[in-house]
Design goal:
Length: about 260
């Protein structure tokens, strides 16, 4: 198998390896939400999102998309879609209003839309983050509704210009990586954390937010692992959840009988 050159290649590799088994499972213990995506389902969301970004916002190599999103399964799809277009991801928390005005599109959770609207950003997509992918409710602003927009786009994505490994891929705080650098960093981090092919990783969402998308999304893809992403974790039920999901390793939680990522077994 060829060495992945970009994040899009990492997703394609996962799709070839095991299209139907769970790749990303998302829990929110505060709401009781559970969403499970196979590689095929995630790739479908990525394709639809990439088509939306390319066709409606002309996003492509050299383009810039700013994200104001929490760690979430829909955020995984958005990140991979931006990278599939060959564009770079910016975090709005590290960008000032003047720089945000230069981006092609801003994708934000519904509760983070008001301050962005005050900046006069026109190309704004709002995400409800509803577990069933439904649209925003109780919203009267000018942002376009991601859920309504994305559903009309195709399930297969073909970039107008293929992603180029040398192009910028991520600007996060003081970190800047090319698309190729993201794939390389993912592979290196997977090795450092000792993530094995076939691992089922339980990752705390807060730790994931602090570590960044290379750690919670790309490194598992690079290693051939799947992810159980847990938000607002109820620690008392983590052992049961780990057993139910057949978790083999954890990041952000100590669970008896489960190895911690980055530590020897």
């Amino acid at each position: 198998m060829a060495t992945p050159a970009t994040p899009a290649d990492l997703l394609a590799q996962a799709l070839r390896r095991s299209p139907a088994t769970p790749l990303l499972t998302y829990y929110d213990d505060a709401s009781g939400e559970r969403v499970e995506l196979s590689a095929t389902t995630l790739a479908n969301w990525v394709a639809k999102t990439a088509n939306l970004l390319q066709e409606e916002f002309d996003l492509g190599p050299g383009g810039r998309a700013a994200l104001a999103l929490p760690v979430h399964w829909q955020t995984a799809a958005v990140l991979l879609a931006v990278w599939s277009c060959g564009a770079t991801v910016l975090d709005t928390a590290t960008e000032d209003g003047e720089r945000l005005a230069d981006v092609d599109v801003v994708l934000a959770a519904q509760d983070r839309l008001p301050p962005l609207e005050e900046q006069g950003i026109e190309e704004l997509l709002g995400l409800s983050l509803h577990p069933l992918g439904m649209g925003m409710t109780g919203y009267a602003g000018d942002a376009r509704d991601f859920a309504l927009e994305v559903r009309v786009h195709g399930d297969t994505f073909v970039p107008w210009s293929p992603p180029r490994p040398a192009d910028p891929g991520l600007t996060l705080g003081g970190l800047a990586l090319s698309l190729g650098g993201l794939a390389e960093a993912a592979g290196e981090l997977a090795r450092r954390l000792a993530i094995a092919d076939g691992d089922r990783l339980l990752i705390d969402a807060q730790v994931a937010a602090e570590a960044g998308p290379v750690a919670w999304l790309l490194a598992p893809l690079a290693a051939g692992a799947s992810v159980v992403l847990v938000r607002s974790a109820d620690r008392s039920r983590l052992p049961h959840l780990a057993a139910t999901e057949r978790v083999t390793a954890a990041l952000g939680h100590r669970i008896e009988g489960i190895r911690e990522l980055g530590r020897e077994a």
